[in-house]
Design goal:
Number of strands: 10
Largest sheet: 10 strands, mixed
Strand content: 15-25%
Mean pLDDT: 90
Helix content: 40-55%
Order of helices and strands: EHEHEHEEHEEEEHHHEHHHHH
Low-confidence stretches: 234-238
Distance between the termini: 72 Å
Oligomer: single chain
Length: 342
């Protein structure tokens, strides 16, 4: 993957270290209200090594770009900023900046998240230096809900979080998520050799973590050192789980992970693919397309065929009956049972 044609979008004046220990891949879009908090927390890190901040500002319609210019002018020794003249999309913006990182270790953060511990980078660097077999490490983080749900803040990782995780841990079920993006530090030598299919996957986290874990375990630090904002703006919430294109891309992603790992985790990935094919039956575009629904149901069934008559009954009832029809069926069964008990 060659993204050098985007290099001319570099904001002039940067004089970042030529051999940084850590590169911070900072992706931002419509983060005017948050980005100062995020950048200040990075610049306040207490470390005994050089680091660089590679910013990708993706042509935000608000004042995000102006804030990036302000910080780049003020901290040319730390910040290398790309300010896009047109929107590239989160994946290309990210990959271009990611591949431009020169540090031994890479951290990825989005402009609405922020770090809460000034020793975060130092703690993770020390961990990876002390565990050369590890491909990456992550720490605990707090979720703050700003999506209108009024939910109380919560920690991502529970007290029983395993100290080391591998590829299978990311494939327990679809959309497995227990590592906040801003909490992960990875070895660049394991991350920069990205396969072509990675670029075409809408999700970057799960594929990247599997790619890393295939080359070494990922360690866990229990300290809470960052905040993940769950909100309705910015980079997140751009896809909808009921859109056929989104679900189709998830099938592509997990099938690509399966091939990348030489089908070692086929027993885990097949049920995930089955779940997504069943989701395609109910997506917006296919609700009335009965031929497509039948095809996706067949594909799903072949991936993980029920073994017993009881399993078949449960499978058909769950996946062919709508919630409304299922409720009516259960009510009918209840009344029928009551009738025969008289």
């Amino acid at each position: 993957m060659n993204f050098s044609h985007y290099d001319n979008q570099l904001f002039p004046g940067s004089q970042t270290p030529s051999n940084p220990k850590v590169s911070i891949c900072f992706i931002t879009y419509k983060h005017e209200a948050y980005i100062r908090t995020s950048l200040d927390a990075i610049l306040e890190q207490q470390v005994n090594f050089d680091y660089e901040i590679i910013i990708g500002e993706d042509h935000s319609p608000d004042g995000t770009a102006d804030i990036v210019r302000e910080y780049a002018l003020k901290h040319p020794d730390k910040i290398k900023a790309y300010i896009r003249p047109e929107n590239l999309g989160s994946k290309i913006n990210y990959v271009h900046c990611f591949l431009d990182c020169k540090g031994e270790y890479i951290v990825h953060i989005e402009g609405d998240d922020y770090w809460t511990d000034p020793l975060k980078l130092q703690r993770q660097v020390d961990f990876l230096d002390q565990h050369p077999h590890a491909s990456a490490c992550f720490h605990n983080a707090e979720i703050i809900f700003e999506d209108g749900s009024d939910r109380a803040p919560q920690l991502i990782n529970s007290a029983d979080q395993k100290p080391w995780v591998g590829s299978a841990d990311f494939l327990v079920e679809k959309e497995t998520w227990f590592m906040a993006t801003a909490a992960v530090m990875m070895r660049r030598k394991f991350a920069h050799a990205l396969p072509e299919w990675f670029l075409h996957s809408k999700s970057g986290d799960i594929p990247l973590y599997v790619i890393l874990a295939e080359q070494g375990p990922i360690g866990y630090l229990p300290e809470v050192m960052s905040v993940y904002r769950k909100n309705e703006g910015g980079i997140s919430m751009t896809d909808h789980v009921y859109a056929d294109a989104f679900i189709k891309n998830r099938i592509f992603m997990y099938a690509s992970i399966n091939a990348h790992t030489q089908y070692k985790y086929n027993y885990l990935i097949k049920p995930i693919l089955q779940a997504y094919y069943l989701m395609r039956m109910d997506c917006h575009e296919n609700k009335s397309a009965w031929s497509k629904k039948a095809f996706y149901f067949s594909r799903a069934t072949l991936l993980n065929t029920p073994r017993t008559a009881k399993d078949w009954k449960t499978y058909l009832k769950t996946n062919l009956l709508s919630p409304k029809n299922l409720l009516a069926y259960l009510n009918f069964r209840s009344k029928l049972n009551q009738f025969f008990k008289r």
